[in-house]
Amino acid sequence: MRSDTDMAGKQTRALPELEQRLQAAESQLQALQKQQQALVFGISHDLRAPLRAIDGFTLRLQQGLQAQDSALVARSIEQIRNAAAKSGALIDALLEYSRVGRATLKYQPVALDFLVDWVVMDLSVIWPQLQVDLDVQPGLQVCGDEALLKTLLFKLLENSWKFSAGKGRVDVRIRGESTPEGLHVEIHDQGIGMDLRDAEQPFEPFQRLHSTKQGAGDGLGLAIAHTIVTRHGGRIWAQSSAGEGCSIHLLLPEQALQSTPAVDL
């Protein structure tokens, strides 16, 4: 009788863990379904634009060759190469978006301030002309996959650099606070900001809230960041107004979560 009671007690205690794993698996499945839709959209829509451009510039190149117009030939070749580079960059971004959604997570303690310094060195190579004012709270630590968290910080800070380039300097402040849900991290910059419909809008795939002249990219950077945070069981949202900078908020685990198996669609 006692053994039956003990077994029932163990099963009862195991229920919350099973429910957590089920919720995590359902969340991962929804994320993968959304990712699949984004990949189809990217291939069928965004990838068509540079391919159409290549087709048009090829016709102009043919006309230039027939007319022996060296200037038109040179311009057409340059535009074809630009369109091809854009196609290649978009394909790379789509592959990265797919990869971060399926990579096996290797949980370990991760010092965020160390990763930030690492990312800033990479960004300084890309934008060596920018003056950087970086204020990072020391001792911020989470538990997660170091490689994916580095990618997360690169995508977020890349936007701070990109949308501050017109000012000639980057001002970034990073703060964190331990909460019952995990470590709440705020990354605030003094860039050009953006008008938001809601706090989740920037993280939708292929969302472009800035013009190309302002530095808008392929529309996948923040979607990749969102996927990484979701895979860690966390949350990400934004606060911003045009001309007033941007704050990105993260909730990341301070302890390892029960990992869930990859879901293939």
Compact description:
This protein is α+β, with helices and mostly antiparallel strands and 265 residues long. Helix content is 53%, strand content 18%.
Describe this structure in words.
The protein has 265 residues and is an alpha+beta fold. It folds into two domains: 47-101; 106-252, 2-Layer Sandwich (Heat Shock Protein 90). 53% of the residues lie in helices and 18% in strands. The strands form two sheets. A five-stranded mixed sheet has the order 2-4-5-7-6, covered by helices on one side. The protein has a two-stranded antiparallel sheet with strand order 1-3. A hairpin with a 5-residue loop joins strand 6 (235-240) and strand 7. Helix 1 runs antiparallel to helix 3 and helix 3 (70-102) runs parallel beside helix 6 (221-231). The longest helix has 45 residues, at 2-46. Mean pLDDT is 81; it is low at 259-265.
Helix content: 40-55%
What is the general shape?
A: globular
For the CA atoms, what is the radius of gyration? 23 Å
The count of β-strands is 7
What's the level 1 CATH class of the largest domain? Alpha Beta
The ordered H/E elements are HHHEHEEHEEHEE
The side-by-side strand order for the widest beta sheet comes to: 2-4-5-7-6
Instruction: Compute the average pLDDT.
Output: 81
From the coordinates shown, what is the CATH architecture of the largest domain? Answer: 2-Layer Sandwich
The SS-based structural class is alpha+beta
Distance between the termini: 45 Å
